Amino acid sequence: MARIVEYSPVLATARHTDGIWNAHVATRRLALERGHDHHRPAGGPAPETIRGADALILAPVPARPALRLPSDDHRAGRPAAHRILDRIRGQRPDLHIVLVSHFLVGRGLTRRDDKPYTWGLRALEGRLRDGPNPWTILRPAWLSGRDDPFHQVCFTQDVRADGLVTTDGIARAVLAAIEHPRAAAGRTATVFNLSIPGAAPADLPGQLRALEPDLEATTPWLQAFA
């Protein structure tokens, strides 16, 4: 059983806007079904919840800066998420952080389909990689409200990948990363669904192990998962 803390602002409705994935309900349901302990404290992870946690899910509301800022400028990211990272670095540098980002972050700043809300997430991804914590960065594709009983969750590191993913697919990807930290730590991947009738359930741990570690994953903290 894992002790999971989640920081994920969501909308009052199920409508998807500005990169808010609204996967909290699906993630909590799946976590409890699998016997995990799940907390989503108001206002962000409190010191006492962080102290006893095994993993943190960070799914911030992406900021919309008035001006395009350099990706390494701290003002480009969501202030609350940056403050949480500062707090965790001081209290729990060993805590595994799963960041729910956005697949357009991997497309770069020069593409026509780049969106303002991805700029802050790009800065947050970089700050997470530069810190002491073990991390996994998941980049969901476009959110789909259509449930399909044959949906399979897929990971890819192809920055040209596109597609759709449900909140249930995001939840399964997040829980797989938390349950298999050795396979997931130091990896960045896009998450999407494929409809494959008659296929066996997706081997998410195997998919995670097949991912290439990011360049930053060669830092010493990764040895803790070896």
Salient structural properties:
alpha/beta; Rossmann fold; 226 residues; 7-stranded mixed β-sheet; globular; two-stranded parallel sheet; 7 helices; 29% helix
Short summary of the structure?
This is NAD(P)-binding domain-containing protein. The chain has 226 residues and is of the alpha/beta class.
Note the main sheet: 7 strands, mixed
CATH homologous superfamily heading: NAD(P)-binding Rossmann-like Domain
Named CATH architecture: 3-Layer(aba) Sandwich
Q: In DSSP terms, counting alpha (H) and pi (I) runs of 4 or more, how many helices? A: 7
How many domains? The number is: 1
Shape, principal axes of CA atoms: globular
Q: What is the top-level CATH class?
A: Alpha Beta
Give me the Rg, rounded.
16 Å
Q: What ranges have pLDDT less than 50 throughout 5 or more consecutive residues?
A: 11-20, 63-77
Helix content: 25-40%
Distance between the termini: 20 Å
Query: Beta-sheet strand percentage?
Result: 15-25%
CATH fold call: Rossmann fold
By secondary-structure content and strand pairing, the structural class works out as: alpha/beta
What is the residue-averaged pLDDT? 80
Provide the spatial order of strands within the biggest beta sheet: 2-1-3-4-5-9-7
H/E series:
EHEHEHEHEEEEHHEH
